[in-house]
């Protein structure tokens, strides 16, 4: 296998059908088809609708990625696919497609972990991962802090949300402010015109008694309820809701807790690199606050560009390429899709 393997990655764990192609750490193609608009009127991703959309999009997206990269399936060294965690039906479409292509073209297949792929994608922008690193993954489905000693071997979970994911909180708050789905980008934009100190919303799991048991865990459900109560009280009193101030204050509460806990994890483990990934990593306030606070304690922050932060095929290809280059054995061709795939497993082993 070459040092700079040509790897194709397929992602279908949620509402994005992604096919990416990388050579080593170089991104050659990142084709994406999203079903996000089909979910908008429901205010969240509907699994059956997502699966159907993947089925329709997978073959054209695959073709587009190969065309964009200027390669054929025969040129590819290995195929990587998200095996989990994610929506079972959605994962199945990607895994079945990857198996079909692997079988037809006689290529090795790697069933990989979606969360580890969110970490690996940063190599496409910033080069090899400095290890150890702390990774903070914040999206619609997950909010985790991980210690990354060796991405080929597994990662150590340090903490996670005990209720809503960070992106889910953005989506729910946007819904109660009547802003549509997905909520993150619109709250981010609206918050630019607001005052982040206008309303003192709660910072979940940061009180001393909570820190004892949940130092690196998150909770956003109380925050979401606090925003709902605050808005209701305003509406009852007949006063207009200052939407930009609510958005800015809510966003600040989320970003304050995320950055404080991530940097605490870096300090605790003597780590100098913080990688942030997942859809919420696209948030402008989170990026700024992380940079500011990290600079003060000598930690370097690595955040991929927004298109690579949200779900895509390139991240899967990046992790596949990392595994191939490290000489890790492929997965068996009968690998299962595992909606609850554990973080300690980077790929499905034989
Ligand atoms: O990683 P991702 O594309 O899919 C999941 O695996 O969930 O993340 C989507 C989530 C959504 O909840 C969306 O509202 C949030 O990421 N998001 C943002 C921003 N852009 C996307 N949240 C805050 N600020 C943003 N700019
Ligand atoms: Zn994701």
CATH top level of the largest domain is Alpha Beta
Integer average pLDDT: 95
Name the shape in a single word: globular
Question: Strand order, biggest sheet?
Answer: 3-2-1-4-5
Within the CATH hierarchy, at the fold level, what is the topology of the largest domain?
Nucleotidyltransferase, domain 5
Number of helices: 13
The total count of strands amounts to 10
Strand content: 15-25%
Enzyme class: transferase
Cofactor: Fe(2+)
Binding site for Fe cation: 114, 118, 311
Main location: cytoplasm
Describe this structure in words.
The protein is of the alpha/beta class and 350 residues long. It has two domains: 6-125 and 309-326, ATPase, nucleotide binding domain (Nucleotidyltransferase, domain 5, 2-Layer Sandwich), CATH 3.30.420; 133-303, Nucleotidyltransferase, domain 5 (2-Layer Sandwich), CATH 3.30.420. Helices cover 45% and strands 18% of the residues. The protein contains 13 helices and ten strands. Strands 3-2-1-4-5 form a five-stranded mixed sheet, sandwiched between helices. It is globular and about 65 Å long. The site of 5'-O-[(R)-(carboxyoxy)(hydroxy)phosphoryl]adenosine (KG4) has 19 residues, from helix 6 and helix 7.
């Amino acid at each position: 296998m070459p040092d700079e393997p040509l790897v194709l990655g397929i992602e279908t764990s949620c509402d994005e059908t992604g096919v990416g192609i990388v050579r080593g750490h170089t991104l050659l193609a990142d084709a994406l088809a999203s079903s996000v608009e089909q979910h908008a009127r429901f205010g969240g991703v509907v699994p059956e609708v997502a699966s159907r959309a993947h089925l329709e999009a997978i073959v054209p997206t695959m073709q587009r990625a190969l065309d964009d990269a200027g390669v054929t399936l025969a040129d590819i060294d290995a195929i990587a696919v998200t095996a989990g965690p994610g929506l079972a039906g959605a994962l199945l479409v990607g895994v079945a497609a990857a198996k079909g292509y692997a079988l037809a073209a006689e290529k090795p297949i790697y069933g990989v972990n979606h969360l580890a792929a969110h970490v690996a994608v940063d190599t496409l922008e910033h080069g090899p991962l400095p290890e150890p690193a702390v990774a903070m993954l914040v999206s619609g489905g997950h909010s985790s802090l991980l210690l990354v000693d060796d991405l080929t071997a597994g990662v150590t979970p340090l903490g996670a949300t005990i209720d809503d994911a960070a992106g889910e909180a953005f989506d729910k708050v946007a819904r109660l402010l009547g802003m549509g789905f997905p909520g993150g980008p619109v709250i981010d934009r609206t918050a630019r015109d607001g005052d982040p100190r206008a309303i003192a919303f709660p910072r979940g799991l940061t009180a001393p008694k909570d820190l004892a048991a949940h130092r690196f865990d998150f909770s956003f459900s109380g925050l979401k309820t606090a925003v709902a109560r605050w808005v209701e009280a305003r509406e009852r009193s007949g006063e207009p809701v200052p939407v930009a101030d609510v958005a800015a204050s809510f966003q600040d509460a989320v970003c304050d807790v995320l950055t404080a806990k991530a940097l605490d994890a870096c300090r605790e483990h003597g780590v100098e690199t913080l990688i942030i990934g997942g859809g919420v990593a696209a948030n402008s306030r989170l990026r700024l606050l992380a940079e500011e606070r990290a600079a003060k304690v000598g930690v370097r922050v690595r955040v991929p560009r927004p298109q690579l932060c949200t779900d895509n095929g390139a991240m899967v290809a990046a992790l596949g390429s990392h595994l191939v280059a490290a000489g890790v054995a492929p997965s068996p061709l009968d690998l299962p899709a595992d909606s609850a795939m554990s973080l300690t497993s980077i790929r499905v082993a034989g």
